Amino acid sequence: MLQHVWTLGPRKVLIESDNVEAIRILQYRSPALPDHALVFSIKELTSRAWDLIFMHVPRSANRVADGLACLGRGASFDAWCFMDPPLEIVEALSTDLHSAT
């Protein structure tokens, strides 16, 4: 996903995750998985000339992301691009939008 974002061109990106340890690994604050190929590839992407902000967001505070993650469980490891929100997250999206105003 980061490679796709890099290709699109934005150079200031906020990355939210409910996984505190994943954020620590990507911010070089955790010794976990130092030689893992996926971590190495992600760290190469994060070292490029862009401003990445990593933020922990509890799962309960982001129902849309949690709903999307649930859709991806058991699916192939491909990137998905939605032109319209999947029906499974429409209610959560509506709730998030109304609580933001």
Automatic annotation (TrEMBL):
Q: Which domain of life is it from?
A: Eukaryota
Which residues does UniProt assign to the signal peptide? none
Domain RNase H type-1 residue range list: 2-69
What name does UniProt use for this protein? RNase H type-1 domain-containing protein
- The transmembrane segments are none
InterPro entries, from UniProt? Answer: RNase_H-like, RNase_H-like_dom_plant, RNaseH_domain, RNaseH_sf
Record organism: Hibiscus sabdariffa
Gene3D superfamilies noted in UniProt: Ribonuclease H-like superfamily/Ribonuclease H
